[in-house]
Amino acid sequence: MSDIPKTPAEWRTILTPMQFHVLREKGTERAFTGALWNEKSSGKYHCAGCGALLFSGEAKYASGCGWPSFTQSIVDGATAYNTDRTFGMRRVEVVCTACDGHLGHVFNDGPPPLGTRYCINSASLTFHPDE
Ligand code: FE
């Protein structure tokens, strides 16, 4: 992953404006507007910035929130976490460990047994369906 872009200008050459806004500026796509919130096929979800494998379709579920929702990331260490105090809330931001790209937030209102809901922007992800 040594070829991960470093500067905003480098990122702008490989990301769409929406991907750049979400991944590099911590933006949020509007609910129910992303390409993947209702994706139900089996497959894997990679970081749209650096290609790192982040989520399995097996962990995706229909949360009804309008963003792709997962109960967990695919392996420990694929995602990292920061406290986000913007907008008068205390939330836990989820980022791609490899490129530090903003993915979304993780909440504690997910289904049992884990109870976690990774609420992730479609723009942060690329979906690779199984063969
Ligand atoms: Fe990444």
Describe what you observe in this structure:
The chain has one domain: Metal Binding Protein, Guanine Nucleotide Exchange Factor, Chain A (Beta Complex). Helices cover 12% and strands 29% of the residues. The chain contains two helices and eight strands, in the order ααββββββββ. Strands 3-7-6-5-4 form a five-stranded antiparallel β-sheet. Strands 2-1-8 form a three-stranded antiparallel β-sheet, with no helix packed on it. β4 and β5 form a beta hairpin. The relative contact order is 0.25. Bound molecules: fe (iii) ion. Residues 47, 49-50, 52, 96, 98-99, 101 line the site of fe (iii) ion.
In short:
By secondary structure, the chain is an alpha+beta fold. The protein has helices spanning 8-14, 17-25, and strands at residues 43-47, 53-56, 69-70, 79-84, 91-96, 102-107, 117-120, 125-129. The chain has two helices and eight strands; from the N terminus they run ααββββββββ.
Give helix and strand order, one letter per element, not per position.
Answer: HHEEEEEEEE
Mean pLDDT: 96
Uncertain spans: none
Any idea what the CATH superfamily is called?
Answer: Peptide methionine sulfoxide reductase
Helicity range of the residues? 10-25%
What is the CATH top level name? Mainly Beta
| Main structural class | alpha+beta
Beta-strand share of residues: 25-35%
Count of the domains: 1
Name its key features.
binds fe (iii) ion, alpha+beta, 2 helices, Metal Binding Protein, Guanine Nucleotide Exchange Factor, Chain A, five-stranded antiparallel sheet, 131 residues, three-stranded antiparallel sheet, 8 strands
